[in-house]
């Protein structure tokens, strides 16, 4: 437990962190990688370049300061981050390195405002938070390795099939190279791949949702090729997988992780909303709902630019044609004439609240995933509709962002 004095000091730094949080975390990562370049093999360098990781860490530090009197309030965020840490292979010995560099960054950015008293208080607070992470992650490592077919670290898988799903998305069917048992997973979870990409000095780690139901035979990941833009380079890993990974090749995976999972315990109506490749965790949830809850009302809405980038079209059509409980709608931003003739094409443009009200039940549980602007629009629409927070569930691809 933190001392009363140090809790008061931490609370006093809340306004400073609100103003200078991202400057601190930016400086932190620069220091961390300069003194520990081996950690570049763990962190996503694209998220660093885009500033997403710095923002996520700044928000986490700020939340810790705000809730310093009741750190239990941030436990859900701790669990979400811990899943990713376990999947990446973050270990207890990494935490002192992080703490040392975070305090050094605070001192450098805040200057005279980072008094010995402030640094001492944050040092103690960091120790408490680190212990929470280490404890949660230890349990997760044990669960991942002790289950049937489980493992620790990274395990070698063979590409059994490589299926082009659309102009931008390709699915990889992966089987254990050792022919051993395959660990189960919860619909919505992801695996982490470790790739030595051409032209890259450091190992690259990326999370990819498992896009099929647990089956004991294979894992499937469906990967979007991330094309470069002026403000963003081409996806290092996605490009490598699309261009260089073939049937018979091997890929290193950590055991399934993630807390964005389908709840089979509830029985009310459920609505899935996906934008682009955001369908990947939701298709696993959808198939599970149809298989395990055949009387449950299910609505699936998919949004894409047009049919050329819409993956798994035939699979979804088949599910809709063979399950009376499923209502399936397609929304294309810029549909072609051929797209307009597709079965289940329902709307041109975007998913807006008035249309959503016409096809979905407000009392549903809503699961959604996709690009952040898509998720923000869905989230704000649901809040405007008056959907309660416990009915709204979503997943970010990458560091946690804000939908407010």
TrEMBL record:
A molecular function annotated in GO for this UniProt entry is:
heme binding
Q: Where is the active site?
A: 95 (charge relay system), 137 (charge relay system)
Which NCBIfam families does this one have? Answer: PRK13289.1
Q: Which cofactor does it need?
A: heme b; FAD
Q: Per the record, where is site Involved in heme-bound ligand stabilization and O-O bond activation?
A: 29
Role description: Is involved in NO detoxification in an aerobic process, termed nitric oxide dioxygenase (NOD) reaction that utilizes O(2) and NAD(P)H to convert NO to nitrate, which protects the bacterium from various noxious nitrogen compounds. Therefore, plays a central role in the inducible response to nitrosative stress.
Tell me the protein's name: Flavohemoprotein
Q: Where does heme b bind?
A: 85
Which residues are tagged with the site Influences the redox potential of the prosthetic heme and FAD groups? Answer: 84, 395
């Amino acid at each position: 437990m933190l001392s009363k004095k140090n809790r008061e000091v931490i609370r006093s730094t809340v306004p400073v962190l609100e103003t200078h949080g991202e400057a601190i975390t930016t400086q932190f990562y620069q220091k961390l990688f300069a003194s520990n370049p081996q950690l570049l093999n763990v962190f996503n360098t694209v998220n660093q370049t885009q500033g997403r990781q710095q923002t996520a860490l700044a928000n986490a530090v700020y939340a810790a300061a705000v809730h310093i009197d009741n750190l239990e309030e941030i436990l859900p965020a701790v669990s979400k981050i811990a899943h990713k840490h376990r999947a990446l292979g973050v270990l207890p010995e990494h935490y002192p390195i992080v703490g040392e560099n975070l305090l050094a960054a605070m001192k450098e950015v805040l200057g005279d405002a980072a008094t010995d008293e402030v640094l001492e208080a944050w040092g103690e607070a960091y120790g408490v938070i680190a212990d929470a992470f280490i404890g949660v992650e230890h349990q997760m490592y044990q669960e991942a390795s002790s289950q049937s077919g489980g493992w620790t670290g990274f395990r070698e898988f063979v590409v059994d099939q490589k299926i082009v799903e659309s102009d931008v998305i390709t699915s990889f069917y992966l089987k254990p190279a050792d022919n051993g048992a395959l660990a189960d997973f919860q619909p919505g979870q992801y695996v982490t791949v470790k790739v030595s990409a051409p032209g890259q000095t450091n190992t690259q780690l990326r999370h990819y949702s498992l896009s099929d139901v647990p089956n004991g035979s294979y894992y499937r990941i469906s990967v979007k090729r991330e094309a470069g833009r002026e403000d963003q380079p081409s996806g290092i890993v996605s490009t490598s997988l699309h261009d260089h990974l073939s049937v018979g090749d091997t890929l290193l995976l950590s055991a399934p992780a993630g807390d964005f999972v389908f709840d089979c315990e509830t029985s009310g109506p459920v609505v899935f909303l996906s934008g682009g490749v955001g369908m990947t965790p939701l298709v696993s949830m959808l198939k599970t709902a149809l298989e395990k809850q055949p009387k449950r009302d299910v609505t699936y809405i998919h949004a894409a630019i047009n049919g050329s980038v819409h993956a798994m079209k035939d699979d979804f059509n088949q599910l809709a044609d063979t399950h009376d409980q499923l209502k399936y709608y397609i929304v294309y931003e810029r549909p072609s004439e051929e797209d307009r003739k597709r079965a289940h094409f329902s709307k041109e443009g975007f998913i807006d609240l008035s249309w959503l009200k016409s096809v979905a039940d407000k009392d549903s549980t809503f699961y959604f995933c996709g690009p952040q602007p898509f998720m923000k629009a869905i989230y704000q629409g649901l809040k405007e509709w008056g959907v309660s927070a416990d009915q709204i569930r979503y997943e970010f691809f990458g560091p946690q962002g804000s939908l407010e």
